[in-house]
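INFO  loader      accepted 1 record
INFO  loader      residues=215
INFO  predictor   begin
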Amino acid sequence: MAGRSSHYFSRQPEVASKRRSIELSLPDCELRLTTDSGVFSAERVDAGTRLLLQEAPSPTAAMGDICDVGCGYGPIALTLATRSPHSRVWAIDVNERAVALCAENADTNGNDNIRPVVIDTDGTALVGDPAHVSALAEVRFDGIWSNPPIRIGKPALHALLTTWLDRLTPEGRAWLVVQRHLGADSLAEWMQSQGWATTRLVSRAGYRLLEVSAR
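INFO  predictor   done
INFO  writer      dumping tokens
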């Protein structure tokens, strides 16, 4: 995933910039988001992300540090930050363009509780506010919300999930949305086999919403 490429899971997408503005309308919040070429679902907020935001539990007032793994331009992170303004929302991605957009969108929408950080494929923090980069290695999360990058391949996906699911607090939970035809059921079975209790909460429009407990 290092180097330059047109893939949204590349560090520096090679495709030329083509910025645009889209809207995310949910029952409890309205967000205006700037997107760009070379990031996931640049044309519109994708159906899986919408399912996650509509059906997964919202962060509770007791949650301190929560995380959007694979934040892209920020629809999940900004929604979490809006719903739980007292939580610290860590927005992490390997894509520098995506993380910069997430930071820009946080400023635009007044979400000052977002911590956008570019990470390496092993979870190491690389780029962001120096205080956030330094702190990320020690943070444990009360909740993780993610539309994970399934197309990076099974070994890389398993490594990614292992890195971040193992950062959950003992009572922490993760909510993942995965397309059924891209292996949602086999992924749930793998997580279960690795010790993360996994429950299917919703199955709709070809997606599974999975709830995962800390192991």
